[in-house]
Amino acid sequence: VISKNQIKFLHSLLLKKNRLKHQKVILEGQRLIEESMRAGANIEYLCLTENFKNKISSNNLLNQIESYKISNSDLKKVTDTKVSQGIIALVNTKKYHKMNFDSIQNNNFVVLDGIQDPGNMGTILRTCIWFGIDSIILTSNCCDPFNLKCIRSGVGAHFYFKNIIIAKSNLVYDYLIEKKYDILVADLNGNNISNYNKKNNWALILGSEPHGISDTFKNLFKITIPKIGKIESLNVSVAAGIILNEIIDK
Amino acid sequence: VISKNQIKFLHSLLLKKNRLKHQKVILEGQRLIEESMRAGANIEYLCLTENFKNKISSNNLLNQIESYKISNSDLKKVTDTKVSQGIIALVNTKKYHKMNFDSIQNNNFVVLDGIQDPGNMGTILRTCIWFGIDSIILTSNCCDPFNLKCIRSGVGAHFYFKNIIIAKSNLVYDYLIEKKYDILVADLNGNNISNYNKKNNWALILGSEPHGISDTFKNLFKITIPKIGKIESLNVSVAAGIILNEIIDK
Predict the structure, then answer these.
(1) pTM of the model as a whole
(2) Which pLDDT score, from 0 to 100, does residue A126 have?
(3) Do B123 and A241 touch (CB under 8 A)?
(4) Is A229 helix (H, G, I), strand (E, B) or coil?
(5) ipTM given for this complex
(6) Chain A to chain B, count of Cβ pairs less than 8 Å apart?
(7) One digit per residue, pLDDT tens: chain B, 250 residues?
(8) Which of A35, A208, A230 to mutate to test the interface with B (most CBs of B within 10 A)?
């Protein structure tokens, strides 16, 4: 059985400052945990309810990891979902927190500029991994990528990344210029993305839906997805998917 | 000031059965309401908090509609969001509820097969309108398209539709075959969507993430977005965007 102290610790991870301090997060639900295991996530242990434990078969992947029993009421304390499946995992995220750009090593990558919606962020991370993009830079005004909602919508994508870098916009800007990246800023008024011809490695910059692109990136090369209908804009994670599908080398 | 009875009525619209019975829904927030007005939504009236009323300028679009004052506590009763902007609108949705397929009239359209997640559904509706697709069929096991979350993620898209048809899968199947549509079922194992050559009008069928395509549509022509990375799947609304971008006549 999981100890009272450990419950207290897990509960503290609901706050961003504690996730950053300890570089640990909680994953919830079987599908997410299994996908994260396949991705090579560093899972320290599982907590299972009695009910869940009785349901999993003896040859399940989950049995490879140390596990503790947890009561339904304690489980509710440490997560923010209303209906729980009866399983959580504690993951060490240390290897994903990179502080500088060296590890990108001239690969194509995505920059999220002030994206605050964790659902959109998680969906974009998932799409990046689908298309083989395993480096991402988040400007410092983005939401925490290890926020529970973001992890949920990423469905394990986080743990396939080589680099999840949080950095100030002006440092990102300097890096892009210095390394001569093809810079593509997604915008409602830009050049048709289908006409892009790759000259160098590219960096795709996506702004937040309500606020758009920040001043730092405003004067760079803009690309757009041609609109046929009348609605003002596309969801940013959908736009990310369409653009990546157009610019990825297939 | 809005009456107690009216508050009671607005509150009742939190339930699907009442939304269907009265064919009315509540919109929340300035951006959503303005976009819906531009889309031609039939807005019966607005409810504004004192605070919000003082903030809007005299030449604002919103002033064209009949409005009532509402207290902050009453506003909380009739919506499901924690933080409210101070404005809601009551919309009549009668014209969108179509019961048969006649109104599609040989146009391209999208079929959502058992999609239960309102955020995904709303995002797909938004993407359809961006690409000029204004007919959609939802199989009867989908969530309610006029669910608050779905409307929120649609950001007004709902009201640009000519047809939002809810129908049983087998009737949809019969219609597609009878009308000789090019049927494209999005699936993880299918033909590369980039190779699709349009012969007739198309219908794109999208299944739910956890359950996939239902048996009714399982033996139809399958298309896929080629995967480069390792993650199992894409978010369904992202997949919808990528596929629509590939098959739309631009």
Answers:
(1) 0.93
(2) 97
(3) no
(4) coil
(5) 0.92
(6) 124
(7) 999 999 999 999 999 999 989 999 999 999 899 999 999 999 999 999 999 999 888 888 888 999 999 999 999 988 877 777 899 999 999 888 777 888 888 899 999 999 999 999 999 999 999 999 999 999 999 999 999 899 999 999 999 999 999 999 999 999 999 999 999 999 999 999 999 999 999 999 999 988 889 999 999 999 999 999 999 999 999 999 999 999 997 6
(8) A230
Going by pLDDT thresholds of 50, 70 and 90, the confidence category of residue A250 is: low
DSSP codes of every residue in chain B: ---HHHHHHHHHTTSHHHHHHHTEEEEESHHHHHHHHHTT-EEEEEEE-HHHHHHS-TT-GGGGS-EEE--HHHHHHH---SS--SEEEEEE-GGGEE-SSGGGTT--EEEEES---HHHHHHHHHHHHHTT--EEEEETTSPPTTSHHHHHHHTTGGGG-SEEEEE-HHHHHHHHHHTT-EEEEEEEEEEEGGG---SS-EEEEEEBTTTBS-GGGTTS-EEEPPP-SS-S---HHHHHHHHHHHHS--
B250, A160: Cβ pair inside 8 Å?
A: no
What angle do the packed helices A236-247 and B118-130 form, to 10 degrees? 60
Q: Which of A131, A153, A229 sits opposite B228 (nearest CB)?
A: A131
- Residue A33 C-alpha, separation from nearest chain B C-alpha, in angstroms: 13
* Whether A231 and B119 lie within 8 Å, measured CB to CB: no
Hey, what are B5's tokens?
């009875």
- Give B192→chain A minimum CA distance, Å: 11
Tell me which chain B residues have a C-beta less than 8 angstroms from the C-beta of A38. 230
Smallest CA–CA distance, residue B4 to chain A, in Å, is 31
